[in-house]
Amino acid sequence: MKEILSFLLVFCGFNSVISQETHQDTISPKQLKEIIVIGKKTQVFEKQTKSLSTVDEYLQKSSRVGMIKRGAYAWEPIINSMPTERTLVTIDGMRIFGACTDKMDPVTSYVEVSNLSEATICSGQEGACFGTTIGGSIDLKRMKNTFRDTTWNFNLNTGFETNNAQKIAGLAIDYADSLFYVATDFMFRDADNYRAGNNKEVQFSQFRKLNLSQTIGYKTSELSFLEASVIYDKATNVGYPALPMDVSLAQALITSLKYEYKPVDNLIKNWETKIYFNTITHKMDDTKRPNVAIHMDMPGWSKTYGYYSKVEAQKGNHHFLVNLNSFLNNSLAEMTMYPNNPNENPMFMLTWPDVDTFYNGIFLEDNYAFNCHSSLRVSASFGVHSNKIKSQFGLESLQIFYPEMKDTRTRFLKNVSTNYTITHGKFQYGVGAGYGERAPSVSEAYGFYLFNSFDGFDQIGNPNLKNEKVFEGNAFVSFKNKKWTLKAETSYFHIMDYIISRPNSSFIPMTIGANGVKVYTALDYATIYNVSLSNDYRINDKINWNMKFIITKGIDSDKMNLPFMSPFSYSTNVSYFDKKITADLTLLGNGIQNDFSPFYGEDKTPDFAVLNANFGYKFKWNRSKLLTKIGVENILDTNYSTYLDWNNLPQKGRNFFVNINYML
Amino acid sequence: MKNQLKKIALVLITLAFASCSNDDNQTNTNELDGLTKFKEVVEGNQTIEFYSPKGALSQGYNDIKFRIKNNETNQYITDAQVEWMPKMHMTMMTHSCPKSEVVKAATGNLYEGYIVFQMAQNETEYWDLTLDYSIDGEEHSLIIPIDVPATAKRVVSSFMGSDNVRYVIAYIDPTSPKVGMNDLKVGIWKMQDMMTFPMINDYTVKIDPRMPSMGNHSSPNNVNAQQTAVDNFYIGKLSLTMTGYWKINLQLQNDLGTIVKGEEITDSVTESSLFFEIEF
After folding, report:
1. pTM (predicted TM-score)
2. In CATH, what class is B2-146?
3. Rounded to an integer, what distance in angstroms lies between the CA atom of residue A271 and that of residue A313?
4. CA of A507: which chain B residue's CA is closest?
5. A370-407, pLDDT tens digit by residue?
6. Taking a C-beta distance cutoff of 8 angstroms, is the pair A76, A70 a contact?
7. CA distances from A453 to A103, A240, A511, B106, B213 (A)
8. Between the CA atoms of A194, A197, A198 and A203, what dihedral angle is there, to the nearest 10 degrees?
9. DSSP A495-538
10. What whole-number distance in Å separates Cα of residue B253 and Cα of residue B271?
11. Is the predicted pLDDT of residue A6 greater than 80, yes or no?
12. Choosing among A396, A400, A506, A519, which should be mutated to test the B contact, i.e. which has the most B CBs within 10 A?
């Protein structure tokens, strides 16, 4: 830690909040990021159709983001149809790694909507600011607090959903003055089993989640402040109906200390430095399941220490960003199986062999506006990534497969990307290209008999995997006038040394009933491309019509389809918004999934369509506001599952909800 | 004559083996490191102290060390000529078991060798050890009663092969198995007569470790045990993917490639009639 700190002191840099520069003479380049607004403190919040949605439900609104569902809770976000290993999910720039070997705890499951103001979604290499990625990134941004005249804010949230009897309760208390602020929030959810269409109860789909967070800011000078932040999240009794096991505990403590410096009239616009620590404990549980062949405990732990120092600077029409970042993660997971004969010793193995991952990287970006029509963004990063297996037990376990393997491995990871955008009348065009690399994940490199219930194979890691590399191209064209906004986008990813597990028939599976053993290996390449279209039509000041389409195709070098590729999927909605009333009618669905991947455990998913409606009303007295949202999801009670639903898990049937926010 | 030559060769090889292990011991200041006394016998002027790693004997393969003390001088006698003969006294007959020659360690005071007790004692049947030694031409012979209790797990097997040869197969190493790749050491002898158990050469011990409590799954990359030299133990690789109870299913294949005992594990055959067991 000392080393990191001293390194920080040596390093010196900058930062500029581009959106704040619009009033100046200089020209700001276009931002290509997609931002999903979550938080309560924005005006937009009042427009939200379901303000107390889960973070997962919010993220799902992005056409780039899909959610792999193994239950009602802790969905795994995929970006451009690429799962966790190929994406980068950060909380305010902080790296966090789930502690579950079966991906039952994505980073997004450890936060609550009450913690967040927005989610920034970047496609492909544009998302490499806080680390390496192939498919893109999501940065979950915490609430921003400000120093102002002494104010207290109280916020009371409560909600209920009929389908799974989900009860939601939350409280937020904020205090701010000119030198100090403290924001505290609490949120609790408790849900029973949900019911799929036709009133079919989905066993083991319950969950309970408690989230507490606090942020304290202190103004150290006119230009700088310190902010300490902590999130504590604890989920218990979480069912995973699509998996053979549930979770008895998923617990995270996420802490950070930030120093932010904003000089005036200077090259440096903003300099933000943060040190952070987070620790996650995850415990799987099979005690509630009937007919368990053998009872087992599968706990996992993940700890991450890290820092970043991000500087934004501006000189002329150049907008620079430099981010120096580093993290040290330790991942450990165990499996203990208890034989039916109580006199026999338990069977113990390390499924993640106490692996340290140490990353040091630098990211550089220049966003240059040539003139008011066109701008060019160029970025590059370089990182050193090293793994070390700390457990001799774990190392020797893996040496069964790889007798020559060493306990350490170091990799160099590089990335470059560029985008050019030009505006021509009502049209805007953009093209981009990028190259990026990533290291294998802990499971891919060091996993030991990780059972994947999707394809039914035990998975063995491979420490000899090469870095996965991607060449990416993207383009968009958009048209905007007073009424219409139309946008067509496409992205193409050519991924080399594509990491995937393949069956090895010479190994016998460990898990009872498994189909076989797969070992992680690299295919020559895989390609993924998607096309999306969106339109927005303002019928009048209050009524808006929106429509989105996306289709994704993924093929590996053996001409086989890749899993989790979006078939033709669409959503359209009509919304109404005035000072007091919001209303929204949404239709969303998928076409038939024809290009499914039996080799990776997929089957053909039929088409579906779901209709949602909601209505909101705002009451206002003096200083206080009461927002009520009522709605019904899946009005027709359709029984369906999507291409992203693990083992064809049926999705929620008809659900009435009410969300109430009271602000004082 | 041929037999004598063989015996000499055997002694020489055993000596070479012993001196090898002695090189390791030289770094140890105490020759009793890792050993526990399990028996002490007084014979005239001498006391004989027996040691083993576990501090006891048991069914299966046993490394045994002992030293002979002159009770008058309290000095250890290092130049005795020693032979031993373990004997099982059954109700109807008496027989011996596989064993090594007794060899004096190159340094220190210990004499060493191994004995493979293929069966355990019971209420009516027992083992003893006849020890014949000479010191400066003075002959001593004594019969030492020894305790050979049964082991909880199968570590030795005495069986009739399909070739009508009676074999003894014993598990030697790893004594402390670990999760990972273990060096497996196995000994095979045949019962030539009640008292003679020569080592078998050029066979192969096929191994298939399984966990019967967990769907009878196997482990990858095991290597069948084979000899590296004539009259040596059989060496293989045993991979254990987790702790717990493992049944090491065996097939004994002779020098002609015929399986003389044991069955291959298939979906219908879940265990071999020839096996070892370990639990850790």
Report:
1. 0.87
2. mainly beta
3. 9
4. B220
5. 988 899 999 999 999 999 999 999 999 999 999 999 99
6. yes
7. 11, 12, 10, 59, 21
8. -30
9. EEEEEEEEE-TTSPPSSTT--EEEEEEEEEEEEEEEEEEEEEEE
10. 17
11. no
12. A400
Residue A144 per-residue DSSP state: P
CA–CA gap between residue A493 and residue A438 (Å, rounded):
14
DSSP A244-283: S-EEEEEEEEEEEEEEEE--SSSSEEEEEEEEEEEEEEEE
Residues 6+ apart with CB under 8 A from B164: none
- A348 to chain B nearest CA, in Å? 5
> Nearest Cβ partner of A400 from B181, B215, B244?
B181
| Average pLDDT value for residue range A611-617 | 94
Tell me the per-residue pLDDT of A107-159, one tens digit each, with 9 for 90 and over.
999 999 888 888 999 999 999 999 999 999 999 998 888 899 999 989 999 99
Contact list in B for residue A396 (CB cut-off 8 A) is 178-181
* Alpha carbon distances (Å) from A273 to A15, A261, A277, A304, A329: 11, 9, 14, 17, 19
CB-nearest partner of B180 from A337, A339, A400: A400
DSSP string, A146-207: ---SSEEEEEEEEEEETTTTEEEEEEEEEEE-SSEEEEEEEEEEEE---EEGGGEE-TT--E
Query: Are the beta carbons of A513 and B220 separated by less than 8 Å?
Result: no
Which CATH number fits the domain that encloses residue A588?
2.40.170.20
The CATH number of the structural domain formed by B156-279 is: 2.60.40
Cα(A351)–Cα(A446) distance, rounded to whole angstroms? 8
Residue type (1 letter), A540: N
> Does the beta-carbon distance from B242 to A337 stay under 8 Å?
yes
Domains in chain A: how many in total? 1
From its phi and psi, is residue A618 left (phi > 0), alpha (psi between -120 and 50) or beta?
Answer: beta
The answer to whether residue A510 neighbours chain B at the CB level (below 8 Å) is yes
Tokens describing residue A117 = 């103001």
Contact between chains at B239 and A506 (C-beta distance less than 8 A): no
Q: Is the dihedral of CA A239, A242, A243, A244 positive or negative?
A: positive
d(CA A436, CA B140) in angstroms, rounded, equals 82
Which residues of chain A neighbour B270 with C-beta distances below 8 Å?
Answer: none
Which band of pLDDT confidence, cut at 50, 70 and 90, is reported for residue A52? confident
The predicted model gives A294-320 an average pLDDT of: 95
Task: Answer yes or no: do B179 and A349 touch at CB < 8 A.
Answer: yes
Reported as a pLDDT band with limits 50, 70 and 90, residue A26 is low
A349 interfacial to chain B (CB closer than 8 Å):
yes
Q: How far is A406 from chain B (nearest CA, A)?
A: 14
Domain boundaries, chain B: 2-146, 156-279
d(CA B105, CA B233): 20
Length of chain A: 664
For residue B155, what are its two tokens? 């570590």
The pairing of beta strand A450-452 with beta strand A427-438:
unpaired
Cα distance between residue A121 and residue A138, in whole Å: 5
Domain encompassing residue A157: 2-663
d(CA A435, CA A441): 19
Let me know: does A587 contact A572? Beta carbons within 8 Å. yes
Rounded average pLDDT over A184-194: 95
Structure tokens at A557: 């070098």
Residues B88 and B94: their CA atoms lie apart, in Å, by 5
